[in-house]
């Protein structure tokens, strides 16, 4: 990797945490995570009227400082994104690359983190509504959490399968609502007076929550409710199983990718300082622990060196 020459390249490396900026990038991430957590705690505490009134100016200063920091971070990322590894290889102008970054999920989350406060200064909106929007700032942690990135990747990969599962659940929801409406409508018109009203019971039953505020009382209604409950046990497990399987597959792919990178780096049975630095950057980017990385490197070194010696006599061929 070439050393960054311009300020924009240095900022891109800082945000990516690569090369000589790995430690600085890690410190920056920790600082931003701390600010996000402080904001989340402050927004939650601010919902207490007495506390919000007593520390109004303190909360206001914290909000102004935080928005300023997040806005500078957002603009800096938008400016330097064209020099990030992912966008350098893209064809087209810098404007096209910035537009692609602007529409990316992480960039939109960064934008959501500052928009509510800007709206508060520009438009007279309900403060409770703005407080909830500001709480979405917690999603900025997605950028710094490898586990959240894996989960988002799992959602993306299993999108069509999840849509199919939710479609089936929606059909079962409608059938359950119609069935319980026909059975319990005459007995409990206040609770099952319409199919939309019956959907509350169907939703609570299908998700196995079972609040108990609306229940069938006729023998046929109880039997129908039992059938729906048994059916829901399998229905709820479908999306859960899909996500768990995809999450596990994402972890396996990252480990395999790192092992392949180690295999390509080993030429003479050893790793030089440049290769070790590259593998460390890759480990950090993939979100692997040092234990996993060291195990993969040791395994690949043993496999490589085993081919240099005869299995029978232990000497070089």
From TrEMBL:
<keyword id="KW-0633">Potassium transport</keyword>
<feature type="transmembrane region" description="Helical">
    <location>
        <begin position="223"/>
        <end position="245"/>
    </location>
</feature>
<feature type="domain" description="Ion transport">
    <location>
        <begin position="27"/>
        <end position="253"/>
    </location>
</feature>
<feature type="transmembrane region" description="Helical">
    <location>
        <begin position="101"/>
        <end position="123"/>
    </location>
</feature>
<keyword id="KW-0472">Membrane</keyword>
<feature type="transmembrane region" description="Helical">
    <location>
        <begin position="30"/>
        <end position="49"/>
    </location>
</feature>
<feature type="transmembrane region" description="Helical">
    <location>
        <begin position="162"/>
        <end position="183"/>
    </location>
</feature>
<protein>
    <submittedName>
        <fullName>Ion transporter</fullName>
    </submittedName>
</protein>
<keyword id="KW-0630">Potassium</keyword>
<dbReference type="Pfam" id="PF00520">
    <property type="entry name" value="Ion_trans"/>
</dbReference>
<keyword id="KW-0406">Ion transport</keyword>
<dbReference type="InterPro" id="IPR028325">
    <property type="entry name" value="VG_K_chnl"/>
</dbReference>
<keyword id="KW-1133">Transmembrane helix</keyword>
<keyword id="KW-0407">Ion channel</keyword>
<keyword id="KW-0813">Transport</keyword>
<feature type="transmembrane region" description="Helical">
    <location>
        <begin position="195"/>
        <end position="211"/>
    </location>
</feature>
<keyword id="KW-0812">Transmembrane</keyword>
<dbReference type="InterPro" id="IPR005821">
    <property type="entry name" value="Ion_trans_dom"/>
</dbReference>
<keyword id="KW-0631">Potassium channel</keyword>
<feature type="transmembrane region" description="Helical">
    <location>
        <begin position="55"/>
        <end position="80"/>
    </location>
</feature>
């Amino acid at each position: 990797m070439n050393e960054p020459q311009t300020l924009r390249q240095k900022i891109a490396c800082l945000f990516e945490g690569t090369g000589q900026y790995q430690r600085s990038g890690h410190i920056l991430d920790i600082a931003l995570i701390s600010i996000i957590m402080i904001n989340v705690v402050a927004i939650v505490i601010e919902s207490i009227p007495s506390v919000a009134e007593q520390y109004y100016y303190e909360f206001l200063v914290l909000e102004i400082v935080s928005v300023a920091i997040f806005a500078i971070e957002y603009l800096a990322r938008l400016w330097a994104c064209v020099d990030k590894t992912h966008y350098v290889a893209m064809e087209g102008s810098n404007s096209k690359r910035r537009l692609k970054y602007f529409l990316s999920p992480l960039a939109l989350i960064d934008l959501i983190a500052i928009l509510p406060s800007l709206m508060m200064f520009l438009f007279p909106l309900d403060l409770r509504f703005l407080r909830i929007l500001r709480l979405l700032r917690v999603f900025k942690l997605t950028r710094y959490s490898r586990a959240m990135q894996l989960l988002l990747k799992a959602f993306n990969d299993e999108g069509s399968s999840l849509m199919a599962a939710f479609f089936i659940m929606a059909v079962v929801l409608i059938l359950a609502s119609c069935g319980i409406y026909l059975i319990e409508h005459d007995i409990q018109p206040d609770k099952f007076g319409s199919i939309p009203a019956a959907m509350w019971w169907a939703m609570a039953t299908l998700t196995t929550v079972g609040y108990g505020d609306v229940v069938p009382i006729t023998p046929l209604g109880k039997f129908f409710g039992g059938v729906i409950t048994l059916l829901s046990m399998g229905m709820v497990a479908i999306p859960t199983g899909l996500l768990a399987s995809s999450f596990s597959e994402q972890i396996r792919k990252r480990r395999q990718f790192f092992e392949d990178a180690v295999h390509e780096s080993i030429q003479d049975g050893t790793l030089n300082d440049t290769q070790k630095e590259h593998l460390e950057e890759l480990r950090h980017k993939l979100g692997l622990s040092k234990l996993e990385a060291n195990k993969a490197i040791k395994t690949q070194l043993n496999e490589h060196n085993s081919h240099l010696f005869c299995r029978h006599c232990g000497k070089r061929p």
